[in-house]
């Protein structure tokens, strides 16, 4: 029954011939290095978000300086073209000088802010650069904390988010300030106030236009609906004026929605017609909050979902096996925990393309270094664990799952490829 | 991934930003100088008409055209600003949520509970408490236990073994059941402390009282007691290993493991295991999705991941047998079977090879053995 190594060697050759699809990936350092590189590629958001912030500041500052400079130039032009007295000219010029002084100060401040943001972008590139195979455990720990902060920010748990990032020194790697900006808008929307959301749209006009966003239109529609809801002669008048000014420009691209909403003038907020009743539902404000979050994430290059959910889904699937749901599942498996099981239930199972055996006794992998041995009753354990048991018990082996007793010499090696 | 090209692209942005800044500064400086100059001429009661002076300034401004200069500087900066995100998109995975199932919604309460539990088991009690308060979740049931664990570990850091020993003694039966040598580890450390700090007599007394009970682990106890021969000079003895801080680290590790285990928790945080597994899975999934972009791939409703992901050995919690011939995973209906030569196939494959039992033997696909079907037997991994 014993197989000599030569035969087994031949067998391996046969196997690779018959099954060329198998590409075993031995855990050599080079594969771990490429695995690391692959995992760093997941960090787009980490680099993109601070850059979008930086770019926004640069653009805003630049627009402001350009405006100031051109206004100074045109003021001088006006002065020269008009026939002012000398005194007036002197006083105008003096005020221009102090205006330029102010501009210099602003320039200084703006540049400081820009430099800070550039530093943050750099810190993140350096953080990616710092990851290597040796410190990967620590790096992954930091990554988990970053992912948790991202989750908390998206859920508006600001206090814990700041505490966690400060106590673990990752403030440069998370985007608390950016989310604070979003929170202002979200809070206002929750109080049924669109002003700050509209201001946000104005600030990011060009980018929103580029992505064909209709968020501003939706805000305007909601304001219109609120005027109709007020149900007074004055408010109807206002609603019509409002629609002429703010809704009409969207007519070219969003005529159907425009008609749908304007028709509420005829139906009023008390309507029972479902098609219009729905527009007056308070829930519409939550829809706006949701839409804002989406626009916000898109603008900054973030994923729509919290990173935590994306990583959890992938990780749970990769760990999900039918065994994880069994009664006596080892506690080391995250899926032995009820909470993880619940999350994993709707997700796909992992796929295995070759056998991986783990010794029931020692929980160590059974491979060529520690090959599996079969008891006469068909139960399989690792050589190391069985040897240890035999040494302690005078050569006897007791199967821990069935209580079956046999001698070490009764064992047979199994070849699992 | 080429981090260097990302760095270069960013350096370009930062450089252009500096350039644009100094250009703006220069222009503002120049404007204010010119106006200053004009003002001083005006105020010196010069013989020139103030209108002609103003006209000069205006002419000069039109010639220099500061607004155009600003625009030119911005244009250059803009090129760099547009390029950088493109480099990022090329080097990194732009949207990792492509591998996300949108039709699966996680229950926020469960996720929050998992996070709170994570903070407590990492010993971050302040943050855990803050999180629980902010989310309004109910108090975490494991908080108290982890608090106790960290008190024990904290004491061990200060070389105080008392709380650890108390815990190990009161759970000694359970520890024996899982064959943990935690108590011996702790007793050894205690013994070494006594031998180092006090006299040998006391150490011997301690050994008689507490170490003699570990007769099963003869080699360890022998070494311990023998180390007394080199009293206070262990560095040069064969037992210098006893001075290594690794002994303490191991004891701490074993205590954490056993403590978590008795709590019904894994020794490593399940959240960090899952996220690490996710970090290794996402690249594989994303690559697959990219390759399969043209084929209609219903990721949303798959029963099983479309690709295998090689997780590290320590994340392999269960035996998985995949039949090397049919490539199918074994199950209760299709269990693994060992042939007389020791090679293992699954039952369905063996049935197929023997033409459903119509042949009484067949050749093993891996070796020249002629396999007798009646001698194939089921394995339990």
How would you describe this protein?
The complex is a heterodimer of chains A (417) and B (381). By secondary structure, chain A is mainly alpha-helical. Among the domains of chain A are: 88 residues; 129 residues, no CATH class; 64 residues, 2-Layer Sandwich (Herpes Virus-1). Chain A is elongated, with a radius of gyration of 34 Å. In chain A, the strands form three sheets. Chain A has a three-stranded antiparallel beta sheet. Helix content of chain A is 64%, strand content 5%. By secondary structure, chain B is mainly alpha-helical. Chain B folds into three domains: 88 residues, Helix Hairpins (Orthogonal Bundle); 132 residues, no CATH class; 63 residues, Zinc/RING finger domain, C3HC4 (zinc finger) (Herpes Virus-1, 2-Layer Sandwich), CATH 3.30.40.10. Chain B is 58% helix and 5% strand. In chain B, a hairpin with a 5-residue loop joins strand 2 and strand 3. The two termini of chain B are 41 Å apart. The model of chain B has no long low-confidence stretch (mean pLDDT 87). The chains are: A mainly alpha (417), B mainly alpha (381). Chains A and B meet through helix 1, helix 2, helix 3, helix 4 and helix 5 of A and helix 1, helix 2, helix 3, helix 4 and helix 5 of B. Strand 1 of chain A pairs parallel with strand 1 of chain B.
Keywords:
heterodimer, A: 417 residues, mainly alpha, three-stranded antiparallel β-sheet, 18 helices, 64% helix, disordered N terminus, B: 381 residues, Helix Hairpins, Herpes Virus-1, two-stranded antiparallel sheet, 14 helices, 6 strands, zinc (chain B), metal-binding (chain B), Znf_RING/FYVE/PHD (chain B)
